[in-house]
Automatic annotation (TrEMBL):
Signal peptide annotation: none
Pfam families the record matches: Acetyltransf_4 (PF13420)
Protein's name according to its UniProt entry: N-acetyltransferase
Coiled coil, from the record: none
The entry's keywords: Acyltransferase, Transferase
UniProt-recorded Gene Ontology molecular function terms: acyltransferase activity, transferring groups other than amino-acyl groups
Domain N-acetyltransferase: 8-183
Entry superkingdom: Bacteria
Keyword Transferase appears in the UniProt entry: yes
PANTHER family linked: N-ACETYLTRANSFERASE, UPF0039 PROTEIN C11D3.02C
Length: 219
């Protein structure tokens, strides 16, 4: 029997993925406190979010494929092949809007509900962090609802530590909620750092190829 990993690949997203990614994300908005949005964005709005991330940062999708779709799947921003379903995504963007923050970035990672706990999130996070480091990002920051203990523990297992906690700072579903900020250092902090840059296509290709090879090896 084949393992789960041979059926999954990570690639760069494109605007065409907006509807599929939104189908995955919307239940987290409408039914959970994982996202602090209270209304799902439209497909067009989400397409703009994806494009904005791709222009300066990155946006990755995790696909689950039928067996016949496994061979030849690219890693760049192409639409999902027939028979492929987007079951996860990860992105990063600005941590703060002042110039001095530019070496830190806030991350976001989601898996389709019911798909956590099998190692797929670890591969997705690894790909995202390596792309961030290749672009000159030194600090990865994650803001998580305090009651989302599964996500907090996931990040801690992968090297993050809680740096700040805020109590009763948001309200959703008639309840006051707290948040935790978790941080991981991805690279050294030189005395005179060069400004970060958009990820180079060749770096993304190399990193995603290596991560996908590890996924495939788990079959």
């Amino acid at each position: 029997m084949r393992g789960h990993s041979a059926l999954y690949r990570i690639r760069l997203a494109s605007r065409k993925d907006a509807a599929a990614v939104l189908d995955l994300y919307a239940p987290y908005v409408t039914s959970t406190t994982v996202s602090f949005e209270v209304e799902p964005p439209s497909v067009d709005e989400y397409a703009d979010r994806i494009q904005s991330a791709l222009d300066r940062y990155t946006f990755l999708v995790l696909e689950r494929m039928d067996n016949e779709d496994e061979e030849g799947l690219g890693t760049a921003g192409e639409a999902a092949p027939a028979g492929a379903d987007i079951v996860g995504f990860a992105s990063y963007g600005p941590f703060g809007h002042r110039v001095a923050y530019q070496w830190s970035a806030e991350i976001s990672i989601y898996l389709k509900q019911g798909l956590t706990g099998n190692g797929l999130g670890a591969h997705l996070l690894d790909a995202l962090e390596k792309i961030m480091a290749s672009a000159g990002i030194t600090n990865s920051e994650s803001c998580i609802c305090s009651e989302n203990t599964g996500s907090i523990e996931f990040h801690r297992r992968h090297g993050y530590r809680t740096c700040a906690e805020f109590t009763d700072c948001a309200s959703k579903f008639g309840r006051w909620l707290g948040i935790q900020w978790l941080e991981k250092h991805l690279a050294p902090h030189p005395a005179n750092p060069q400004p970060p840059h958009a990820p180079a296509p060749q770096d993304c290709e190399r990193i995603l190829a290596a991560v996908n090879a590890r996924l495939a090896s788990k079959s």
